[in-house]
Amino acid sequence: MSSNDTDPRDEKPQFVLPLVVRIERDAPPARTDALESAARAVLRLLTDERALGEGEWAQAVADWEDARIRKVVRRARGAEWRRASALPGITETGAEAEVRVFPPVPLDGWPKELAKLQVSGTDLDDPEPPGPAPEGAAVLWFNPELAMSAGKAMAQAGHGAQLLWWALDGAARAAWREAGFPLAVRTADADRWPALAASGLPVVRDAGFTEIAPGSATVVSSFPGVLGAPGAPAAGNLK
User: Fold this and answer.
1) Which sequence spans correspond to the domains of the chain?
2) Which InterPro entries match (predicted)?
């Protein structure tokens, strides 16, 4: 695309998918648990009956998917979390992490309960390095060359899960959903990343609004036996 061209998605009303992670001062979740919970939360919303057909969230989801697909993660604790939990949405609970996803809202039209929440302060760590991905789980492989805050990485994990969902056929989708969306977030080995990024698997390329350069490949998504080998079909990039 030349500098004189415009992306038609930019000419449409812009929406954002809000996610809120619960981070209590004395009990923050592990980073990988939070990333995996965010990815599953996005999948829960995409497959919720309220987001499909004539559901109450369906038009907002359609409008969001019709423009640039943005996700923003904010943090909450205590009363903030309780107020956020009272809004329509879905809470995904991991081993310790709690992430609530809400139907898309206009870019400048966040509910006041969410608009007050901070984007910064989502830095999380893993007490121990995560082990191998569970057998049969989808894997969202992160680029080892990029440093991101946990909030930014949670949004990227959500992007990766969404691209993977779009890439699967109906049978694979049904089986994954019935199993509870088993997935793992792992950072790829540096020597393996170039092959993953060039494999034809779904790849997330960030628009560069925050933290990292535009066009950066952040996540490659694979699904065992379906989307897990070089040459497997990709769903296109997600900004």
Assistant:
1) 14-119+133-222
2) Pep_tRNA_hydro_II_dom_sf, PTH2
Strand partners, 22: 76
The percent of the chain in helix, strand and coil, each rounded to the nearest 5, is 30, 20, 45
What confidence tier does 232 reach under pLDDT thresholds 50, 70, 90?
very low
Q: What is the pLDDT of residue 6?
A: 60
Q: What are phi and psi of 165, to 5 degrees?
A: -60, -45
Question: Cα dist. 29→21, 187, 219 in Å?
Answer: 9, 18, 21
What is the model's pLDDT at position 67? 80
Q: How far apart are CA 82 and CA 79, in angstroms?
A: 5
pLDDT of 238 higher than 50: no
| pTM of the predicted model as reported, rounded to 2 decimal places | 0.90
CATH number of 14-119+133-222: 3.40.1490.10
Three-state DSSP class for residue 217: strand
Q: Which amino acid is at 79?
A: A
Give the Cα separation of 138 and 128 in Å (integer): 21
Mean pLDDT of the chain: 89
